[in-house]
Amino acid sequence: MSVVSLNERRKHPRVSDAIALRLNANPSTPINPTPTHVVRMSCGGLRFVHNTAIDPDTTIKLCIHLPSSGKTVHVASRVISSGEEKSDVFARQNGKQYYVQVEFLDIDQTVHQLLADHIDYVLGKTGMSHRVAIPA
After folding, report:
1. If you ran DSSP here, which 8-state letter would residue 17 be given?
2. Distance set, CA 88 to CA 9, 48, 96, 121 (Å)
3. Second label for 105, Cα 20 to 30 Å away, from 18, 46, 54, 60?
4. Is residue 111 domain-resident?
5. What CATH number does the domain containing 15 carry?
6. Nearby residues of 48 by Cβ (< 8 Å), 6 or more positions away
7. Residues in the chain with pLDDT < 50?
8. pTM reported for the whole predicted model
9. Does any domain span residue 135?
10. Confidence (pLDDT) at 12
11. What is the residue range of 29's domain?
């Protein structure tokens, strides 16, 4: 199910959506590459739940499958924060889970457009109309 906050005041609107997400890190950073599916995303970053915490300032590469276009984008990201997920139903049923918040690093115009189009698609499914602005 897709959700967007009506009180969104951030630079980039955020939506919650179920997508396929894979994590890749350098070999010295042990990250389980298990697919993650429920995310909160914007054109500036992503929040997801994972089975391990990831240290802040860790650089990871995300492979994000966008169902609206059927395309997969690859985005270098920096972990802003990570900690134990206390509110997630899955975490309560299956042991500890961790939230990870990342900011995207140097995404090109094509990837930004694909992310923006996907967010607009999710907003359209929720009955909200909002066009995500693309920087010049």
Report:
1. E
2. 24, 11, 10, 25
3. 18
4. yes
5. 2.40.10.220
6. 21, 36, 38, 39, 40, 99, 100
7. 1-10, 91, 131-136
8. 0.72
9. no
10. 56
11. 3-125
Comparing C-alpha atoms, which of 119, 84, 121 is closest to residue 11?
119
Count other C-beta atoms under 10 Å from residue 83's C-beta. 11
For residue 61, what are the β-bridge partners?
Answer: 24, 76
Provide the residue type at 32 as one letter.
Answer: N
Q: What is the pLDDT of residue 91?
A: 47
Mean per-residue pLDDT over the chain, rounded: 76
Determine the distance from the C-alpha atom of residue 116 to the mean position of all C-alpha atoms in its chain, rounded to a whole number: 13
Output the six-digit token pair for 121.
């698609």
Domains of the chain: total? 1
Is 133 within the bounds of a domain?
no
Asked if residue 69 lies in contact with residue 22, where contact means CB atoms within 8 angstroms, the answer is no
Residue 49 pLDDT: 84
Q: Would you give the distance in Å from CA 26 to the centre of its chain?
A: 19
> Rounded distance, CA 97 to CA 49, Å?
6
Q: Which long-range contacts (CB under 8 A, 24 or more apart) does 92-97 make?
A: 96/51, 97/49, 97/50, 97/51
Query: CA 43: distance to chain centroid?
Result: 9
